[in-house]
Amino acid sequence: MANRYIRRFSEIGVDDVALVGGKNASLGEMYRKLSREGVKVPNGFAITAEAYRYVLDQARAWPALHRALDGLKPDDMEDLSRRGRLAREIVFGAPLPDDLQREILDAYRELRVEYGEQMSLAVRSSATAEAPPHGQLCRTAGDLSL
Question: Can you state the angle between helices 62-69 and 77-92, rounded to 10 degrees?
Answer without folding.
Answer: 170
